[in-house]
Amino acid sequence: MKAAVLHAPGDLRYEDYPVPVPKETDVILRVRAAGNCGSDLQRIMVKGTYHFPCIPGHEFSGEIVEIGSKVKSFNVGDAVTAAPLIPCRCCRWCQVGEYNLCESYDYLGSRSDGAFAEYVKVPAENLFRIPEGVDFEEAANTDPICVALHGIRRSGGINPGDTVVILGAGPIGMYACQWAKILGASKVIAVDVIPKKLEICHDLGVDATINAIEEDVVSRCREETDGGADLVMETAGTLATQQQSLLIPRKRGRVVSIGRSYKDVLLPDKVYTQIFRRELIIYGSVNSNFVENGNEWKISLIFLARGLIKVKPLISHRLPLSEAGEMFRKMYEKKIYYNKIIFQP
């Protein structure tokens, strides 16, 4: 098969690669759509994967072309998407259904070969059928939709009437904006530095947008929320947004940290002291969960099928997989505007 194969940081080659062979509990998917994630850029251009060569890509959808001998719940031809985290199902966290906190997990696209390829091997237990009315592009976005939902649920959820500030209007931020409106927030404010992304947020129904280059984010957010937001979601992973996330909430407001900075975070005393002076509640949020009780993947696919979560406005590029290497180079060098990119093997 053809695949975009990472041989070293910055060395992503479109080349021939062996077609994966399923174990008895696996399936093989023909990849129909694969999306980029912010972590892919760091993984491909800076950090590398856990071994080389390795195929990146963990946001995807496709159709089953082969099944292992013990797979009974899926058939060849089924249209599916898949959770990329493969839990050990043995550790203390897996035993209570918190797969995203697994202590010995595998992961498609970094620890095992992922979906920037014509075919990908996936454990059948990680699969979800794509509902009628949801296409492959939309289904390939299920992972970031789930990450946004998981962040909101980690924070205790949204109460009707809550004011919510989303710092960072990348795909996860845009999906968080949509979830916040769906779940009853009275006002949702999106903050970013790229006007085009703020335009998309406006079109998706947020109540206010703030360009962080043109305005004082903290004072504007406090003004818009009558003194402080009930919930602040930090999705950008920059020092500026990490500091803002502690200055925007009301007293006993909630902050959920989703974005990763990839470098040390130094907080001035006047920022850090807001945690105890305002008695802030701070949550971490990583990945998403797909256990039966409150399965974020099933929930997200239902809302996609109902048309309540919008994906199409986020897609900035549709490209053949052969252009992946050049595209990631342009992204890393900040030579282009991009949002969600769909690679079509």
Q: Please state the overall shape, judged from the principal axes of the Cα atoms.
A: globular
Q: Give the number of helices.
A: 12
The count of DSSP E runs of length 2 or more, i.e. the number of strands, is 17
Order of helices and strands: EEEHEEEHEEEHHEHEHEHEHEHHEHEHE
Are there runs of 5+ residues with pLDDT below 50, and where?
A: none
How much helix is in the residues? 25-40%
Structural class: alpha/beta
Overall residue-averaged pLDDT value:
97
- CA(first)-CA(last) distance: 10 Å
CATH top level of the largest domain is Alpha Beta
Task: Please report which band the strand proportion falls in: under 5%, 5-15%, 15-25%, 25-35%, 35-45% or over 45%.
Answer: 25-35%
What's the CATH H-level homologous superfamily of the largest domain? Medium-chain alcohol dehydrogenases, catalytic domain
Largest sheet: 7 strands, mixed
* Computed Rg: 20 Å
Gross CATH architecture of the largest domain = Alpha-Beta Complex
CATH topology of the largest domain: Quinone Oxidoreductase, Chain A, domain 1
Q: How does this model look, in words?
A:
The protein is an alpha/beta fold and 345 residues long. It folds into two domains: 2-141 and 311-344, Medium-chain alcohol dehydrogenases, catalytic domain (Quinone Oxidoreductase, Chain A, domain 1, Alpha-Beta Complex), CATH 3.90.180.10; 147-284, NAD(P)-binding Rossmann-like Domain (Rossmann fold). 28% of the residues lie in helices and 27% in strands. The protein contains twelve helices and 17 strands. It has helices at residues 38-47, 92-95, 136-139, 142-154, 171-182, 195-203, 217-224, 239-247, 269-272, 274-277, 296-305, 324-332, and strands at residues 2-8, 11-16, 26-35, 59-67, 79-82, 85-86, 106-107, 119-123, 127-129, 163-167, 187-192, 208-211, 229-234, 249-257, 281-284, 315-320, 340-344. Strands 3, 4, 5, 8, 9, 16 and 17 form a seven-stranded mixed sheet that branches. A hairpin with a 2-residue loop joins strand 1 and strand 2 (11-16). Helix 1 crosses helix 12 (324-332), helix 4 (142-154) crosses helix 5 and helix 4 (142-154) packs across helix 11 (296-305). The longest helix is centred in the middle third of the chain and has 13 residues, at 142-154. It is globular and about 60 Å long. The mean pLDDT is 97.
